[in-house]
TrEMBL record, chains A, B:
Gene for this chain: argP
Organism this protein belongs to: Halomonas elongata (strain ATCC 33173 / DSM 2581 / NBRC 15536 / NCIMB 2198 / 1H9)
Entry's transmembrane regions: none
Family as reported in the entry's similarity comment: Belongs to the LysR transcriptional regulatory family.
Entries under InterPro entries matching the protein: ArgP, LTTR, LysR_HTH_N, LysR_subst-bd, WH-like_DNA-bd_sf, WH_DNA-bd_sf
Family matches, as Pfam families: HTH_1 (PF00126), LysR_substrate (PF03466)
Protein name (Swiss-Prot/TrEMBL): LysR family transcription regulator ArgP
Length: 289, 289
């Protein structure tokens, strides 16, 4: 049997961001925490965390943390039948795409979290990395655009989000006076989320343009919208992310006929317990547009 | 002299997210791109990129990319005096904190980018990692809360952002009926940005509470706000990030007397040229509240 005091020390260090604070939270000295981490590393024969460039769990450490979380979830189910146990609230670690997080996610899961007394540990990742985290046991579930199945996991389709090429009217007047033409695409700055974001490229291909185009890189979903609202570029956005700017006429589509559908899938471990099953039922109720 | 065709291939692969697309953009075959990357690695004696878990530059590759960017910036200055050269628009790589990106950043730099014909490559990082990227030559500038100077770089104070503990009125009524008490903090879920985010901890310490508290982890600035607006928790936010929810009465402070000031500093290489000097002058005009 593992010594769960050691795992608890590791989890507390990672969550609180340091040995000193973990000691405070657990009522232990900083050196007692260090000893527990060291004992875990001796037992495992390899490091469980690195301190540089910043505190992070090693892949082995992350697997331990995930196992620790699963045990906490089981304790929680036990605690429901034995309330006098007073078990701690577990945190559910989930990888998801940024656009879901800044649009529908919170309103759909809020009641679930409050009624079930669940805390979330959200990890924002593009789909390839999110699915890899699920495969590695680093997260309990993953919300992404890929329907690629993971052995041992279930994959539930949740619908699709519709992306439109949005910009300010002034921007469109300046860069697209004749509509979405090749000449305009060649010089109008776009906004791209990151090297893995192909939505702008797909939109351009849909318009028949396959050449070079200038773009800003902005790996933050809301920052992306702010750049567009400030007139710095155009970018593909789900309409549900920008109801305010659209209603106020700050953002509009530069090619109203063109939109892209991005499907969303929910992947989770098949035998991860009743809690994730209930969260899945909740997510199935989402109405995407 | 370096062979800049090789560096251009590396930069295009990283920006476009793949060898095939880089080939299309540069009018080369995929294998020609591979050969250029390989030639660069032979010259350097080490890899410049890794393909798993996803395409990323190695530390050595990032230094090459940064050097390539600096050369592009110099070419741009040259192009202003010799317009017939027709040099490409450079991309300025900047690390910044998420809260600035989703609030004032775009409105302050928008005119600068349009007038100077500059594209941005934004990297969202907490301050320790952002400063390390600057030290490593991976970014040209860094906006963060640390005034820790970097040798060879200038550090300009831009003011400070004020953070308030915000939640929905219903949440406050449910969890804080008697105000910010120890009993309430022990069971009211907070929202924390990540393991390095100590704002909630500092707020609790300011209220005289130093114990354990439950919290969701949400590493996305706008997702953080959405969780709070959905009634899932309270969290420290700059007032300028939530003018809408505050005006509509959706979010309010749970402890109006308590706020935290977070300073902002702009770090950039001293000899990085006139463009960064002009961007710095622009940033100095920001009015933070």
């Amino acid at each position: 049997m593992l010594d769960y005091k050691l795992l608890e020390a590791l989890a507390t260090v990672m969550e609180s961001g340091g040995f000193e604070r973990a000691g405070e939270l657990l009522g232990l000295s900083q050196s007692a925490i260090s000893q527990r981490i060291k004992a875990l590393e001796v037992r495992l024969g390899q490091p469980v965390l690195v301190r540089h460039p910043h505190l992070a769990a090693t892949p082995a450490g992350q697997r331990l943390l995930n196992h620790y979380q699963q045990v906490c979830l089981l304790e929680r189910e036990l605690g429901k039948t034995l309330p006098t146990l007073e078990v701690a609230t577990p945190r559910l670690r989930i990888a998801l795409n940024a656009d879901s997080l800044v649009t529908w996610w919170a309103s759909v899961v809020s009641d679930f979290c409050q009624n079930e007394d669940v805390l979330l540990d959200l990890v924002v990742e593009d789909q390839d990395v999110g699915l890899k985290r699920l495969r590695d046991g680093d997260v309990a579930a993953c919300l992404c655009a890929s329907d690629q199945p993971i052995a041992g996991a279930r994959c539930v389709p949740l619908g699709q989000m519709t992306y439109h090429p949005m910009a300010t009217p002034a921007y469109i007047e300046r860069y697209f006076p004749d509509g979405p033409t090749e000449a305009a695409f060649r010089r109008a700055p776009a906004i791209v989320y990151g090297p893995h974001d192909q939505l702008q490229h797909r939109f351009l291909a849909q318009c028949g343009y396959h050449g070079h185009f200038p773009y800003h890189l902005c790996p933050e979903s809301e920052g992306f919208v702010r750049l567009a609202c400030a007139g710095m570029g155009y970018g593909m956005m789900p309409m549900m992310q920008v109801p305010g700017p659209v209603a106020r006429g700050e953002l509009t589509s530069l090619a109203p006929g063109h939109a892209l559908e991005v499907p969303l899938y929910w992947h989770f471990w098949r035998h991860s317990g009743a809690l994730l099953e209930r969260l899945t039922s909740t997510l199935r109720t989402v109405q995407l547009t």
